[in-house]
Design a protein that fits this description.
Blueprint lengths: L2 E9 L5 E10 L1 E4 L2 H7 L3 E7 L3 E6 L2 E5 L4 E6 L5 E6 L4 E5 L11 E5 L23
Parallel strand pairs: 3-10
Antiparallel strand pairs: 1-2, 2-5, 3-4, 4-9, 6-7, 7-8, 8-9
Length: 135
């Protein structure tokens, strides 16, 4: 998985959560799992960074939800933006790619959990697809 060098800022719709990331970002994965569908209203697009590379400019509206025994999701309590996905014992955190302004310089790397894909959209056949997470 290629990573991109960057120093980027990102924020939710209302600005209650603002972050700065220094270092590398993984290219984007489109996740079609049922939890992402329910929390995003569609498939989710995530980049990823070591958590130590993220500093919070503002996190006054950040709330965490334990979505499973092994992972949690971060969201904004004011605007409802679904922002983070974190495997609890991991030193990395996934960040919703839609939080960044253009240009992101990120590319879509793959589609994961495609067995859960809903029937109203098609996948781009040029992008690799996997039935589960493929490291």
């Amino acid at each position: 998985m290629k990573k991109r060098s960057s120093s980027k800022t990102a924020k939710c719709l209302c600005g209650g959560i603002k972050i700065k990331i220094v270092g590398k970002l993984r290219h984007v994965l489109n996740c079609h799992c049922s939890q992402c569908m329910k929390t995003h209203g569609n498939f989710a697009t995530y980049t990823n960074s070591p958590e130590k590379n993220i500093s919070y400019i503002s996190k006054r509206t950040l709330k965490w939800y334990n979505s499973s025994t092994f992972a949690k999701r971060g969201f904004c309590t004011k605007c409802g933006a679904s922002i983070f996905y974190k495997i609890k014992k991991s030193d990395t955190i996934s960040i919703s790619a839609g939080m960044f302004d253009n240009p992101t310089k990120l590319k879509t790397q793959s589609n994961i959990f495609t067995k859960n894909k809903l029937d109203y959209y098609n996948l781009d056949s040029r992008i690799p697809k996997f039935k589960k997470y493929n490291k």
